[in-house]
From TrEMBL, chain A:
GO terms for cellular component: plasma membrane. Keywords: Cell membrane, Membrane, Transmembrane, Transmembrane helix. Pfam families: BPD_transp_2 (PF02653). One of its GO terms (molecular function) is branched-chain amino acid transmembrane transporter activity. Its main location: membrane. It is a multi-pass membrane protein. It comes from Micromonospora deserti. The keyword Transmembrane helix applies. This is Branched-chain amino acid ABC transporter permease.
UniProtKB/TrEMBL annotation, chain B:
Keywords: Amino-acid transport, ATP-binding, Nucleotide-binding, Transport. Residues 3-235 form the ABC transporter domain. This is ABC transporter ATP-binding protein. GO terms for molecular function: ATP binding; ATP hydrolysis activity; branched-chain amino acid transmembrane transporter activity.
């Protein structure tokens, strides 16, 4: 058992080495191919040749939109959990703040009746999620220990309860006629309509690419070094002159802003937002996705978020012994996570730094060397 | 005086770890702080470097009151600590760790110069510059922690048990490097359980017992003090 595992592991490491050792143009070409593949993916003319990949139980293009939203969320949460090492259990709460901000500002069912266009509401949604992140983070990030986990969990639950029971947020009835993103084809038809999910998916995919470029630049800067040092040893980071509170707050706020953006995109696509969209479980799923993919690694977060969201949808419409597998999706995830934690705690595609952190020898006592 | 600590008390919740301690460090000195496990040596270091707030008392550095100053700003003033238990960054390479030591600095030429100096002091680190901190041996990690602190070019270097968990030969090596660093002009406050070595190397020393300073003097004086001998040097 272990030898097989060792072999799998060393095989993966070799693959990683090959990737890093490959010439620049090969890596760029592969990356371009992957990007083209994902832009092409929601077209029926393309995905019908992909065998078992399209989902039998749901419209594949719609599924891909959901998957793309999860990937965006995973990329954002990865900043908080993966880079800065902060345990955020209520990340979906920020997604809800983003979606509801857009709903309240744009929908005719809203009490404020501002009826803004979608695009105008987006920056406000992002700003407001960031502010709520700062408000949540300021008192808690100063404290050591797991306060942040508790407070974020409470925050997400609070948002959910507000959504369910407050008159202002309309509960189950929700907000309808939320406007779509702007844009028209030459013939006057809107780009972002009701039936075709592809433009939304392409929009989210494009934003993911932009966000990833931004996050990558950030992680290769002084900010990124500060985050990593905080994650690895907060006291030591402070002792080296890193203003730890400031950087934790930034990571938390940046993560929140990305979730707000995702929420705004979701609202603009869905046209309708109500309290059923924001179950607590979603926060846990995204966290699981980030850890599953290999937290601290952007590619890991993308793969984790994508795979988890896709698998959930893939289970729809598959029956085993008379029950739809979809019903057991969370059981399945629990199992996968447990197995993962046992055999590969650093995630599917860990970064090398993370792997080294897991091998940390600091606690060993050295007697003779 | 480079560093003056005046009547400092520190609490962990309801537990009082320091009961009004006072000590000073003068420019150019090596000052040792010795004491048994749990005496409050690391706590004193945390108070000085600012990662724990003090409950009462004053801390002055180069004449400036830094009692309420944030830890990261103290580093910018020239105070840097190598934490207890080899608090290096395990996922960063040796070079990245050393680079973190220079986090507060912008003078590239000076940083490069200090990097060469550290790699000269610790040839073992030079050999392993691309290796992750977490995979180094205990002795190498200890050297990395000291080297990293030096990278901030501190006026006062705080070392918390740099010899902990090391083989005798390595302990010897670490202590001679400490002397060398001091001779190159860095003032050092050294916390040690290894009292023999610390007292032999220090100009002055303080003895800490359950959060109180119970004795002070030159290194040589304490080395020959009967009570210190009995309690910390393992000789009756
Ligand atoms: N984080 C902490 N929380 C509560 N008590 C602590 C903490 N750190 C140290 N202490 C207590 O403070 C006292 C002094 O500890 P410390 O300064 O680490 O001693 P030393 O470094 O001399 O071995 C001990 O009684 C210890 O149990
Ligand atoms: Mg100690």
């Amino acid at each position: 058992m272990t030898t097989v595992l060792e072999r799998v592991r060393s095989g993966r490491e070799a693959a990683g080495e090959r990737w890093r050792g490959a010439p620049r143009w090969v890596r760029w070409a592969l990356l371009a191919a992957v990007i083209v593949f994902f832009y092409a993916l929601p077209n029926r003319e393309f995905y019908q040749y992909l065998g078992p990949i399209p989902t039998p139980g749901a419209n594949f293009t719609q599924v891909m939109f959901t998957v793309s939203i999860y990937v965006l969320l995973a990329v954002g949460l990865n900043i908080v959990v993966g880079f800065a090492g902060l345990l955020d259990l209520g990340y979906f709460g920020f997604f809800a703040v983003g979606a509801y901000t857009v709903a309240v500002l744009t929908s005719p069912s809203s009490d404020v009746k501002t009826l803004w266009p979608w695009l105008l509401a987006v920056p406000v949604a992002i700003g407001l999620t960031m502010v709520s992140g700062v408000m949540l983070g300021t008192p808690t990030l100063r404290l050591r220990g797991d306060y942040l986990a508790l407070v974020t969990l409470g925050f997400a639950e609070m948002i959910r309860i507000a959504a369910v029971s407050s008159e202002f947020l309309k509960g189950q009835r929700g907000f309808n006629q939320i406007p779509h993103p702007p844009g028209q084809y030459a013939d006057g038809k809107p780009v972002f309509g009701v039936l075709d999910a592809r433009p939304y998916y392409w929009l989210v995919l494009t934003l993911i690419i932009l966000v990833v470029i931004g996050v990558r630049n950030l992680t290769h800067s002084r900010v990124g070094r500060a985050w990593i040092s905080i994650r690895e040893d907060e006291d030591a980071a402070q002792l080296m002159g890193v203003p730890t509170f400031k950087f934790k707050l930034w990571a938390f706020a940046a993560g929140a802003a990305i979730a707000g953006l995702a929420g705004a995109l979701f609202a603009g696509k869905q046209n309708f937002v109500n309290s059923q969209n924001f179950e607590l479980l979603n926060s846990i799923i995204i966290l699981a996705a980030v850890i599953f993919g290999g937290s601290g690694n952007i590619v890991g977060a993308i793969v984790g978020g994508g795979l988890v969201a896709y698998m959930i949808e893939r289970f729809r419409g598959i029956e085993l012994f008379g029950v739809e597998l979809y019903e057991y999706r969370f059981l399945f995830f629990g199992l996968v996570l447990v197995v993962m934690m046992i055999f590969r705690p650093e995630g599917l595609i860990p970064n090398r730094r993370r792997a080294a952190e897991f091998k940390d020898r600091r606690k060993e006592v050295t007697v003779g060397e | 005086m480079l560093l003056e600590i005046d009547d400092v008390s520190l609490l962990y919740g309801r537990i009082q770890a320091l009961h009004g301690i006072s000590l000073t460090v003068d420019e150019g000195e090596v000052v040792a702080l010795i004491g048994a496990n749990g005496a409050g040596k690391s706590t004193t270091m945390r108070a000085i470097s600012g990662i724990r707030p003090v409950a009462a008392g004053r801390i002055r550095f180069q004449g400036e009151d830094i009692t309420k100053l944030r830890a990261d700003l103290r580093v910018r003033r020239g105070l840097c600590q190598a934490p207890e238990g080899r608090g290096i960054f395990p996922g960063m390479t040796v070079l990245e760790n050393l680079d973190m030591g220079a986090y507060t600095r912008r003078d590239r030429a000076g940083i490069a110069q200090d990097l060469n100096r550290v790699l000269d002091l610790f040839p073992r680190l030079a050999e392993r510059r691309k290796q992750h901190g977490g995979t180094l041996s205990g002795g190498e990690q200890q050297m990395l922690a000291v080297g990293r602190a030096l990278m901030s070019r501190p006026k006062l270097l705080l070392l918390d048990e740099p010899s902990m968990g090391l083989a005798p030969m390595l302990i010897q090596q670490i202590f001679s490097i400490i002397t060398e660093i001091n001779e190159q002009g860095t003032t050092i406050l050294l916390v040690e359980q290894n009292a023999q070595q610390a007292l032999a190397r220090a100009h002055r020393a303080y003895v800490l017992e359950t959060g109180r300073i119970v004795k002070s003097g030159t290194g040589a004086e304490l080395l020959h003090d009967p009570a210190v001998k009995e309690a910390y040097l393992g000789v009756a």
